[in-house]
Write a structure and sequence with these properties.
Helix content: 10-25%
Distance between the termini: 7 Å
CATH architecture: 4-Layer Sandwich
CATH superfamily: Ribonuclease Z/Hydroxyacylglutathione hydrolase-like
Strand order of the largest sheet: 6-5-4-3-2-1-14
Protein name: MBL fold metallo-hydrolase
Shape: globular
Bound molecules: zinc ion
Pfam families: Lactamase_B_2
Radius of gyration: 17 Å
Number of strands: 14
Organism: Malaciobacter mytili LMG 24559
């Protein structure tokens, strides 16, 4: 199977509209755009989306079979793409955390999407994958996902301001091979709805992951890192990052 990122930025995306910071200018000059954090898994020629925040995701995967969406939460940068994907001619199951409102009129006009509410720690199978939703601390009910393929275990953990003790213990017991964790902020911000890169690095250490990466970066965080020549223990990844898992 393969995991690949379609975006790794925060909700603003990079470049931010009319922002003249060094990072946004650099992206503009190179013609680069990094949209909100969104990944996908390809297994046996089928697609499983990890979040669905990119508006034209239905076009990106036109002609491909999307079997499921593992939604972390109903913030627009993670579910905007469902507004168009719901008109698919194919039935798609969306697993999501408990949320009465959802986003926009998604629950009212479901079209091709079947919504299934997750129960933390209750695993389910999709194709050859075993998926376990877990709870993350954020401004809205949010799930991370532990994804097991054969003996390989990966964790997709966005958006996240922290993880409760029992969930940390659960993840540790799994011996995670590969983890992606929210590190939206730089070290000047120590409280909010996301982690900064120091907090995220500490948490990846605590989870004892074999390989860890930072995601959901904001342009100000990347600018701070660049200007202060900060070398963090775990690296931020960019759009296009992928891993093949045998
Ligand atoms: Zn987000
Ligand atoms: Zn900027
Ligand atoms: Zn969020």
């Amino acid at each position: 199977m393969r995991i690949e990122f379609l975006g790794t930025a925060d909700s603003a995306g990079i470049p931010v509209h009319n922002c003249k910071c060094e990072i946004c200018n650099c992206y503009r000059q190179k013609g680069l755009i990094n949209l909100s954090t969104n990944a996908f898994i390809k297994i046996n020629d089928k697609i499983i989306l990890l979040d669905c925040g990119i508006e034209n995701i239905s076009n990106i995967f036109d002609g491909k079979e999307i079997i499921a969406v593992l939604l972390t939460h109903f913030h627009s940068d993670h579910c905007l793409g469902l507004l168009r994907l719901r008109h698919s001619k194919q039935n798609i199951t969306c697993f999501h955390p408990k949320d009465k409102e959802g986003f926009s009129d998604l629950f009212k006009h479901k079209h091709s999407i079947t919504y299934i509410e997750n129960k933390p720690f209750e695993s389910f199978k999709i194709d050859e994958l075993l998926i376990t939703p877990i709870s993350l601390i954020h401004s809205k009910n949010t799930n991370g996902y532990l994804i097991e393929y054969k003996n390989f275990k990966l964790a997709y953990l966005t958006d996240c301001a922290g993880i409760k003790f029992e969930t940390i213990e659960f993840l540790k017991s799994k011996n995670i091979d590969l983890a992606f964790l929210d590190a939206c902020y730089d070290e000047r911000k120590i409280q909010g709805n996301h982690l900064n890169y120091l907090q995220a690095s500490k948490l990846l250490d605590e989870l004892e992951v074999k390989e860890g990466y930072l995601i959901h970066a904001s342009h100000t965080t990347l600018e701070y890192i660049k200007n202060n020549k900060i070398v963090s223990k775990y690296k931020y990844i960019n759009k296009g990052f992928f891993k093949e898992i045998k």
